[in-house]
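Internal ticket #5521
Category: modeling
Description: The requester needs a full-assembly model to guide mutagenesis choices. All entity lines are attached below as received. Residue total reported by intake: 764.
Assigned to: D.W.
Attached entities:
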Amino acid sequence: MNSHSLPVNLTDEQIEEFGSELDAIRDEVFDSRGERDRAYILKVIKTQRTMAVTSRLAIYLSLFFLPAWGHPFASWTISLSIMGAGAFFLGIAKILENMEIAHNVLHGQWDWMKDPEIQSNTWEWDTMSPSDRWMHSHNVVHHTWTNVVGRDLDVGYGIMRVTPLQEWTPRFLLQPIYFILLMLFFEEGVALHEQTIDDHLKGKKTFADVKPLLRRIGYKVWRQVAKDYIAWPLAAALVAVPISFFFPFPPLLVFALVAGANAVANVIRNIWAFMIIFCGHFPDDVHNFTEAQVEGETRARWYLRQMLGSANIEGGKLFHVLSGNLSHQIEHHLFPDMCSNRYPEVAPRVRALAARYGVPYNSASLTRQFGTTWLNNLRMAFPGGKVQGATA
Amino acid sequence: MRENQHLEPARKKSPWSIMTAVTDYFAWPLRTSHYLELVNPLWTTHKLQARVVDVWDETKDARTITLRPGLNWRGHRAGQHIRVGIPVDGMHYTRTYTISSPPERDDDCITITVKAIAHGTISHHIVRNIKVGDYLPIGLPQGEFYLPDAQPVLPLFITAGSGITPAISMLRSLIAQGRLPNTEHIHYAPHEFDVVLGKDLKAMAEQHKRYNLHLIYTREQNEQRNNRFSAEQLTQLCPDWKQRDIYACGPPSLLEALEKCFEEAGCGRQLHIERFRAAFTEIPTDAVGGRVKFGRSDVAVDADSTTPLLRVAEENGMNPPHGCRMGICHTCNTTLVSGCVRDLRTGKVLNEVGSIVQTCICAAAGDCELDL
C-alpha cells in the first residue's frame, strides 16, 4: 500500500520501518548521554569566552603599536596585523557562541543536564535576535515545517525564491543582490526574520500589532550595538584623551579603529553563518514540499522529509565545530534536540540507513553545496526552473 | 510560599553594583561575572560556587569535605544547612547538607560531612568521586535549627548517625566563643567504628569538662543495655532533661520517639528538631497508587502510594528540577494536569486541576498526570 506522495520509492510500511530505525538510533544516543558530553560543552563555553575576551584585549593591544607612539615597533603594519588577528578571532568566538553553543543550547540539546546555567529557557546569545523570539521562529516554525512552501518562513526567508514551487514575481529579479546583502547583514536579517513582521509587510497585521515585538527586538539590538560600537570603542577613546596631549594619538581615530575591528568580527561571523546555514537547505538536490504532501504526516514521514530537505557539508573536525555541527544538517534535522557533539557519531549510521532504504543523502563539500546554492539563487531570479527530485 | 531565590534580587546601589552595571555593557549578553569566572570561579556573582580544598574520610562510608565558598558567601549560623549542586553522569543534582564547621572558623571555609547512604547515587558520588580542586555550586545557608545567639541555654543534644553534623557545628561554635555551658550529648551509632566524627567528639569530651558525651552503640554485640531511645534511658543518662533545651537530629524513628516522649512529659516546647527528610504521616492502608503520566517528557509509569513522584520520575530516567527534597524549597513545583496526588506530610489529597504539586513530597493517589 502506498498512500504518501513523497519522492521516494518506498511503501508506507517501509517508511514506518525506516522511522523506527531512526528512533532506535535516537534512543540509544539519548540513553548514553553522560559526563563526557557535559565536559565537552563546558570546554567549548570556556574556550569561547576566553577567546572572546582575549581577542578584544588584542584589539586594544594593537593600539599601542600605532605609528603615533614613535617607538621602534610602532607602525601601521604591526598595529593592523594585531588588530586583524584580534578581529578574526573575535569573529571566530562569535561564530562558536552563535553556532556551536547558543544555537544548540536554544534547541534544548543540553537541557537534560539540568544545569541552571546552560538551559534553553534562560540562554541569551551574542546576536541581535532575542533568543526566545528566535526559538519560536526557528525551533517551532522551521523545524516543524521544514521546506514546506507557504509554512516554513525559512524557504527563501521571505525575500528570495529558492524553488519553482514559489510563484515568480518581478521582485525576485533583484535577489542576487539580496543574497549578498543578507550575507553581509545576516545578524540584522535574523533579528527581523519574524512571521509577524512578514505579516505586517504583507498588510495582514497593523503596526500596532508589531510594535511590542519591535520594542523587544529593539532592546536587544541596542545592547548589541552598545557593546560592540559604543562601550568597547569608547573605553579606548577615553584612555586616548589624556594620551593625546603628549602624542598625536587622536581619540576619534582610536574609537573608529576599535569599532571597525568589531564590525569586521561581526561581518566575519555573518558571512560564515550565512554560508553554513544556506548550505543546509538550498543546495542542488534538496527537496521542497507542498502543504498537501505533509497532510496527516506520521513521525516516520516527518523524518523522511527532514532527510530529503536537508544537506550536509563535508569537512574536518574543526570545521564541524565551527559550523556548530550544522554541517550535519541532516542529523540535526532528524534529531534537533540531540547534543551536537554526537552528530558526527550518528552521521555514518544515518547515512548507511539511508543507503539501505535507497533514500537520497545529500552530502558534499562546502564548494559544491555553496556553489549550487548560489547558482540556484541566480536561476530562481528568473521565471520557471526545474523542481528538485521527482516531486513534480 | 516561594523562597527568596525565586524572586528578583533586591536592587541595591552599592558602588560595586554600579560598576558592574557599567561593565555589563561590555559583557552583554553575559555578565561581567561570567568573565571573572574564567580568572577565578569564586569571584562570580551570577552564581555561588565553592572550591573543594580538602577531603577527609571520617569512616569507611562518611567523608568530610572542606569547601571555600565564593565571595558572595554569607556566614552561616551553627546548625544551618546549604544546598549543594553535584554533577553525576553529566546531570546536575541538588542535595541539602548541614554545615559541620562553626561560623567562627578563621579561614572562612566550611565543611560538610556526607555519609554514603544505601542506594544513594548522589551521596556515593560525593563520598567516592569529589576531589580537591572541584568547584561545586552551592546555595546560601538556610534553616531555623540553630541556638539562640545571645540568651543562655542549657542544651541536651540527642543525635544519631549523620545527625551529628548540626550538633557538632553548634558545639564547636560554643567552644570557639568560649561560652560552652553545661552540655549533655546522647549520640547513637551502630558500632564504635562507624561513629561519624567520633574522634572529634571524644577529644572534645576530654578537653571540656562541661561537655558530657554519652555514646550509645545500637548494633554492637557486647552491649547489654536496651540501646534504643526510651524515657527511662534518657532519665538514667540525663536526670535533669526536663530543665534542658533539647536539640535533636537523626532518622525519623528517633525523632518520632522523642516527640512522643516530650509530648507526654508536657515539655514539647523545649524540643527542637532538625529532619533529614520531611515527616510523612501515616498513609491509609487502603491507599492505592496509580498510573503516573509525565506529560511533557512523554513518560507513563505505575507508582505506588508512598513513593514521592520526584523519585518515580528519577527512577524512570528523568531529571526534573528539585532542591531540598523535603518540601521546603519549592524548586520541584509543577502543576497537576489531571488526576489525584497525596501530600505525604499531611495525607491530604490534591485533585484540583492546575494545583501546584511539590513532587518531592507528593505521591500518586490514583492515576494522575503532571506537567513535567
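Resolution: model delivered.
Comment from assignee: Confidence is low (pLDDT under 50) at residues 1-9 of chain B.
Ticket closed.
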